[in-house]
Amino acid sequence: MAQITQNFDVKIRVVHPFLTKSLSDSDTTRIAATGTFTFTPQPQVDTAQASLASEGFEQDDALQDKVEKVKGDLLKAIDDISRIEEAIRKKAGHITYNYDPELAENESIANAEEDIFGVASGRITYDMYVATLKFEEKINKFIAHMSMESDGEFSVPA
Amino acid sequence: MSLDIYEYDQENSVYNKISANGLQTNPVQTTHNGTDGEIVEKKLFLRNDNENFYYTDITLTAVPPRKVRVGDINYPEAFIGFKIVEKDDQPTENEWLAIESGNEANFVVIGDSSTGDVSYKPFWIQVSIPVGTRVQTISDVSIHQDAEQNAVGT
């Protein structure tokens, strides 16, 4: 016969209430005792379906790549056209129309050049022609505006 | 020693031996809400690990054998409660109230002179933490075991 003695270890953890909401031993004991808590596992991912879905994404990626390429090509083409148009415009600026303002058959064009540019020089460049068109456009807008302001009573003086 | 305390792990369906004498490798652990105060009750088991022995005059005592004062809380009547009772089913509130903190629980005998009983003998502990206890770990408490060890067949 022998006397035996032991001291078994006890650890008491005092924690913040948030921790005990999910971890407390009393909760565990209560749940085990009452059986009121049941854990329902989430459905597992269907790997075959996930694989198909992934393939769909890959196909979408390929299509998106094609769209991006077409978009890039289109932007480049527009840029090229803009540069070509600018080049043509520069060259056209040097095109000149020469006429004799003294001839009766050129009277109307001579009068128009004099009215717009102050003198009938007998030499009209493409740039002057474009400027004339823009000037005409502005005059037409001005006439339309004035006509609205005066309820259609406005007219260009002779 | 061959008379040990165990805790049942329901998840893995195994009995885990509680460490002793300050090793703290596998203590009985309770977790409490210190802000609101909380009582935790836990079922443990006493077991003879060696069928060549039987035990008499077995006592389990909550140590220290009085209420443990929580020193840093704001009112004087705040103590940790630590109680032990030999029982299979979870004790009722009234049964716990009838037991003083720091009490001594008696198991009398495990086995006899002809047979070493190696079954798990259930008992319950109750640890109560008062309202307003700061976050901390308290490990200067233990379950003190005294017993007479006898050889089977003598």
Average the pLDDT over all residues of chain A and give the rounded result: 75
Number of helices of chain B: 1
Strand order across the largest sheet of chain A: 2-3
For the biggest sheet of chain A, the summary is:
2 strands, antiparallel
Number of DSSP strands of chain B?
Answer: 10
Number of separate strands of chain A: 3
Q: Note the overall shape of chain B.
A: elongated
Rg over CA atoms of chain B: 17 Å
Mean pLDDT, all residues of chain B: 86
H-E order of chain B:
EEEEEEEHEEE
Give the oligomer, counting copies of the same chain as homo and different chains as hetero.
heterodimer
Q: Going across the major beta sheet of chain B, what is the strand order?
A: 2-1-4-9-7-6
Distance between the termini of chain B: 19 Å
- Note poorly predicted spans of chain B: 73-77
The biggest sheet of chain B, with number of strands, parallel, antiparallel or mixed sense and barrel status, is: 6 strands, antiparallel
Beta fraction of the residues of chain A? Answer: 5-15%
Integer-rounded radius of gyration of chain A: 45 Å
Explained architecture:
The complex is a heterodimer of chains A (158) and B (154). Chain A is an alpha+beta fold and 158 residues long. Among the domains of chain A are: 36 residues; 54 residues, no CATH class. In chain A, 62% of the residues lie in helices and 13% in strands. Chain A has five helices and three strands; from the N terminus they run E-H-H-H-E-H-E-H. Chain A has a two-stranded antiparallel sheet. Chain A is elongated, with a radius of gyration of 45 Å. By secondary structure, chain B is mainly beta. Chain B has one domain. Helix content of chain B is 3%, strand content 53%. Chain B is built from one helix and ten strands; from the N terminus they run βββββββαβββ. Chain B has a six-stranded antiparallel sheet, with no helix packed on it. A three-stranded antiparallel sheet of chain B has the order 8-5-10, with no helix packed on it. Chain B starts with a strand and ends with a strand. About 3% of the residues of chain B have low confidence. The interface between A and B is large, with 26 and 54 residues. Strand 1 of chain A pairs antiparallel with strand 10 of chain B, so a sheet runs across the interface.
